[in-house]
Amino acid sequence: MRIAQIAPLYESLPPKLYGGTERIVHYLTEELVRQGHSVTLFASGDSVTKAKLITCVDEGLRLKQACGDPLAYHIIQLQKLSACVREFDILHFHTDYLHFPFSSMLKIPSVTTLHGRLDIPELQDIYNTFPYQNLISISENQRLPVPQGNFVKTVYHGLPENLHRQGDGRGGYFVFLGRISPEKGVERAIEIALATQTKLKIAAKIDKADSAYFEKKVKFLLDHPLIEYIGEINEQQKTKFLGEAKALLFPIDWPEPFGLVMIEAMACGTPVIAFNRGAVPEIMENNVTGFVVNSVAEAINAVSRLTYLSRVKIRRVFERRFTAAYMAESYVGAYHSVVGDTFKNVSRNSIPILNKPA
């Protein structure tokens, strides 16, 4: 198939540090190319890909100096797409609902993977206004707040099978990986670590929006000798970081739409102790890949049961459910379904094209 992947522009593909959505779009793009598809990626200029790259800004916007209006580059991205839209069989958007007015004008089929939370009140009006957009969820739980959405499939995230290797947990420490923000629960991770007298290594970024929370609620907790704050780490560093860990702590307090870090831990054979929120029960296999708990007290009790889990079995669950190859095949199935539905009664010659810039 001839596929356009339209990525967010906040991070390069792959991202240099944090960036879950961009990481998944990268893995999907590269796997689609490997499987023989013709893929064009609309992304930042510092992206690295085997697909054809159409640059929409010179570098990822989060690291770009003095970028006051990131939406401007996403509008440029849509214009560049419109100039060559006839070249594709399917458009795959990862830019939330930003493109809806644009893609609604096209007869060419498109799908939109929703990577974020959907329990925001304003989204009711969005999905009521655009009821025919083909949506792909990243978990069944993610869909619940917008049952009126036109969801065509759920596709779980996947990682390249050989990206990480199985570790042995020899470090004996817990890890917290991701973002330091109220909903991610780093305070609860610290509480679990201290209650079990286990070292906790925290590899996480701090967004500007969460800096006040960090200063007031978290920073002083990092002074304890059992707590080590590392900062952001890259993909290569994760294999050792996760593989040598006793367990990943995932004590979230929000409706997590997927939880990429859980399958990163599984790829390393590392158990996860995760709170029962959002997609956690879908992604985790309780008592196999770790433990799904409902409180800090339950998490503390689960620690003593970690030794009963098999790292080999955890890795096998990853290989069976969460590889990039499996993810790409699932998306291709969705593409064929949408393309077939779109072209039953529509000629490609009827595709409108937005005016090119002068």
TrEMBL record:
Start and end residues of each Glycosyltransferase subfamily 4-like N-terminal domain: 18-121
Keywords in alphabetical order: Transferase
Glycosyl transferase family domain sequence ranges: 173-301
Keyword Transferase: yes
The keyword DNA repair is assigned to this record: no
Any one GO MF annotation of this record: glycosyltransferase activity
Source taxon at top rank: Bacteria
InterPro entries: Glyco_trans_1 (IPR001296), Glyco_trans_4-like_N (IPR028098)
Protein name in the entry: Glycosyl transferase
Organism of this sequence: Sphingobacterium haloxyli
